[in-house]
Amino acid sequence: MPGEGTRPRAPHARELGWDEDLHEGDGEESRAADSATGDGGRASHRRGKSPKRGVKKSRKRRVFRWIAITLALLILGTATAGYLYYQHLNSNIRSSSRSGGESGVKQAAPNAMGETPLNILLIGSDSRNTAENVRLGGSRDTIGDKPRADVQMLLHISADRKNSSLVSIPRDTIVEIPECKDSETGQVYAATDNKPINESLQRGGPGCTLTTWEKLAGVYIDHWVMIDFSGVVAMADVIGGVEVCVKTGVWDRPTRMVSGGSGLKLPAGKNTVKGETALQWLRTRHAFGNDQNRARAQHMYMNSMLRTLKKQNTWSNPGRLMNLAETATKALQVSDEIGTVKKLYDLAMQLKNVPINRITMTTIPTAEWSQDKNRLVPIEKSADRMWRMLREDVAFDKNGKPKAKASASATPAGPAAAEPGTLGLTVVNGTGSGQAPKDGRATEVAQILNGKGFALAEASRTADPSKETVVRYAKEDGDQGRSDAASVAKALGLPTTAVMADTEVGGLTLVVGADWRDGTVYEAPKATEAGALPDGADDLNAADEGTCMDVYSVYRWDGEKS
Fold first, then answer.
1. HSE-up (13 A, CA, CB side) for residue 342
2. Distance between CA 496 and CA 146 in Å, rounded?
3. CB atoms within 10 A of CB 531
4. Considering 148, 240, 367, 525, which has the largest number of Cβ atoms within 10 A of its Cβ?
5. pLDDT tens digits, 91-121
6. Side by side, which strands form the sheet with 223-227?
7. Pick from 428, 501, 496: which is nearest to 466 by CA?
8. Which residues, 6 or more positions from 373, have their beta carbon under 8 angstroms from its beta carbon?
9. Which residues of 249-280 are buried (b: 16+ CB within 10 A; e: fewer)?
10. In the 8-state DSSP scheme, what is residue 556?
């Protein structure tokens, strides 16, 4: 019969519905077409379907098409909105240069697992250059002045990310501020002695404060984060409040003898503070006795804030996270290398998984400055121990497992070191860190090395102040450079932690630090144990919820007086 054995006719695209218009009436048009053939729809039957079934399928196709188009628009709209919101958050962020000058401090060498610690400088600015900050901070006579860094804390997160330490310095502590350049104006500020550390922000911005800390502590600082009065209020509000505690009622107000005051007014016991009250808590000095105790109150607030964020599951709650991101990106200024939402989020994740009982906050022990009793100076021996703990990545708490100690005679795996007599070696005098340099020290140590077979060791005429004696090798020399540097360290009795890769040195360089000013044999200091903080450190663990602040008698409040 005609057509018998032939392939079924391929349906047209129109029959599949891909090019049908989005108007009603397709079924009527289909029936009209059948009527036009004069067979009353018999042609449709011959194709294996009735006109009625064709209409139903056509309607189903339109429904499916509408669903597909709607889903596509929703997906596209959501993706676009997400991208635009991400860009919006990025546009909120203000950033500038990480460093304001040269401190001579290098990044720490990676541990055996290739991990390095992370150091972040937290700065609280007293800026009154907006109407809101004037309202919150008072002191209208300072409007237009360059802000000072009234709160300064160094946050250290260990290389293995299992513990964290935070160190504060009172704002009136006298330090050396190095030469700094303001990255925004280009103005250069000469180095200066005998200045309170909070003035570093006025001499080149937050980058200069970072450089000042590096020079003081000998610790490389990766980033800085800065916040002002209004930023503190906004962050306190978005978190929903932070619990603090005072042993008696407190009212930090002007008195007959002392003007000023933060205005903090709380009854005895535990209180949840947010908004302006949170700012008052962080700024209170008179009622808590002094700047050191003000730092303790700030540590109490920050520890409580971390516990609050943990309890809120902020990092896994999209709504809370978006609110926090919106507020934080407006409230914070950061160094350039963390000036995006993604990088700030990644930074937060570095601290997120540190257990609460492995976070310790403390203050550098200080004493009155002999030239001005209203100023402070670090107690050198105590401060140096804390700086050393940070440099060696030693935990401030005792809640972790003890780490294996580095051996002075250990030799790292890798290629054999070159013969001592073939190694070019520059010896630099670094004894001037924090004090006058020991004249001729580089020559003395070069001669010691000559006597140990390092015939090419020569003293440099330049100085490079360093708290600790280190052997640096060019990073591009890789394992061979490390082995050669380790052989120098071993010959002098230096620990393997003294060996560091450096992108700026051209070859092997020994920097004789302030820890080896005399003698022919390096005497390694005793290993510092975890939690071995000096007296006066006033440490506070983040897991401690039972601490309450003492209130100076003049500012005690019984909760009834107004």
1. 3
2. 44
3. 16
4. 148
5. 888 999 999 999 888 888 777 677 899 999 9
6. 94-96, 332-335, 223-227, 118-125, 149-157, 164-168, 359-363, 540-541
7. 428
8. none
9. bbbbbeeeeeeebbbbbbebeebebbebbbbb
10. B
What distance in Å separates the CA atoms of residue 210 and residue 121, rounded to the nearest whole number?
7
> Closest by alpha carbon to 422, among 383, 468, 453?
453
Least confident of 8-17, 278-287, 417-426, 511-520: 8-17
The long-range contacts involving 9-13, CB below 8 angstroms and separated by at least 24 positions, are none
Phi, psi of 179 (to 5 degrees): -60, 135
Taking the alpha carbons of 474, 475, 480, 483 in that order, is the dihedral positive or negative? Answer: positive
Maximum CA pair distance of the chain? 120
Q: CB–CB of 402/530 below 8 Å?
A: yes
Taking the C-alpha atoms of residue 127 and residue 232, their distance in angstroms, rounded to an integer, is 12
Estimate to the nearest angstrom the gap between the alpha carbon of 368 and the chain centroid. Answer: 31
As a whole number of angstroms, the distance between CA 166 and CA 152 comes to 10
Q: 313 Cβ partners below 8 Å, 6+ apart?
A: 320
Amino acid at 543: A
Under a CB-based contact definition with an 8 Å cutoff, are residues 490 and 406 in contact? no
